[in-house]
Amino acid sequence: MSLLLMLEKILNIENMKLVLLIETALILFVLLILFLLKGKLAHLVINTFSKFIKNEYRPDLYKIKADIEHPVSWIIFSVIVLFLIPVIPNLPASVAIFFSNVLKSIMFIAIAHTLLDVLDLIINRVIKKDIEKHVDSYRGDNRTALQYLGVIIKTVIIIFVAFSVAELWMDNVQSLLAGLGIGGIALALAAQDTASNLVAGLAIMLDKPFDVGDWVETDAGSAFVAGSVEHIGLRSCRVRADDGTLLTVPNSVMGGNVIVNGTKRSQRLSSMQIPISISTSADKLEQFRNELTEILEKDEHVVGDIKLNLVDFAPGAYIYHLRYTTSSDYTQHLIAKNSVNTKIVKLLADLDIGISNNVVYKIK
Known about the structure:
The protein is of the alpha+beta class. It is 59% helix and 17% strand.
């Protein structure tokens, strides 16, 4: 029995127009109450759902509770009204289809909104757990990959929802897709640089030649880039140089050129030439070599093997070549060089050995 006949029988009203008016008012009242209570219903649904989640995840859910309550309330409202539309009497089919499409569109958009918020929650939680796990050595190794993955998933969700809504309002979405395909080819040809940057960004994410926080050096063609990586984006990377300058480098450059990653090397190599005066005796030369090697072996800033050899002769000088390694950290590397150079100067003074000032020599 329809709602219209039930009202007519209960109220004993023979005027069908009056019955229809009462029924319409009743439906509008129900919709108004439902609209006003949709927030409360969403709150109830989220709280009920949270009871089935492990205790360790509940604080994270509560953080986004305020963000997802609004879209969840619209999902609940849309679903309930969609079930009510078929029972509304004398509602023209075209009107019913129109309101159904409106509600479905709202529902799809609200679902997408909720999924995007939940996705952000999951990514942030995974990053947080990774930081806690590697608290002493974390450099963002997985953060970049997770952020890229999040962008890809979000893009897929948005595209899917956009075409789902389009299907509700357009008769021939396939023709639109075909047209977009042709237009996409033209757009791709016009935006080759952007496309290459996106592909290079994905390659950087997968191959991980460097991460956020790493010190990198590369030849960008128009400029030499050296600095700490602050951000890896879809189109470009941002590198902070020593002088504080922020360099924005296209991903195609960072992904297509040779990258020197100073952070991931285990040591830094340092070498220098020492032009000893030609008047120095052979005994003093040997003494200088032995004592300097012994001093550097005890230097806490020098790591690895120390090589000090007489490699060549130049007018007025014996050419010694010193080669040693230091920590990969650039600041520690400079401290080590200062320590080594100071000890060389002191030893030369102690042994009364002079150096030649007029030697220009390139180590072979």
